[in-house]
Amino acid sequence: MKNKFLKKISDITNIHKRAAFSDLPDRLPYKESVFLALAKERYSCRQFKDTPLTDVQINHILEAARVAPTAANKQPVHVWVVKSPEALEKLKGATDYTYGAPVVFVVGAKADAAWVRKYDGKNGAEIDAAIVGTHIMLEASALGLGNVWVGSFDPAKLKADFPEMEGWEPVCLFPVGVPAVEAGPNHAKRQSKEEFKSEL
Asked: Global pTM?
């Protein structure tokens, strides 16, 4: 008798949950978020078509970079859009890795304008620049454009050839354009969840 009574109480509780749709996430099949799908699809593209980017595409990417979070909102970053044939050719003096992209975004940071962690003096400028760069890559991918993070460049040569960058420390370059190749075989290689995470 007691078990029947408890079952009725349980049924009433479940009916209440269903009426309020509070158990909806438990009843629906898991659906990957748009962001997670984009993060999985994005890959490092190292060959581009010569199709130029539109001003609209460039401005969308810049806006995504501009609204990126930075420590204490200090925004110690700047982005240069390298797109003229002359500038792209000059950029090749500082890096071998523009991959024929029609546009290369250069992200720079200014350490003396950045937040500093009081406990050990860690300066957040390069971290902020990396966040901005991540926004550039993801927005480019959302627009269907290929992109790649380039860290192999000569910063002294870059600043010498582009005096506009004086006072800034170049952190990363992002060739962006219409992809000419698909993701390579290494794209899907990731650590397992067990290796990647620890629960404390």
From this structure: 0.85
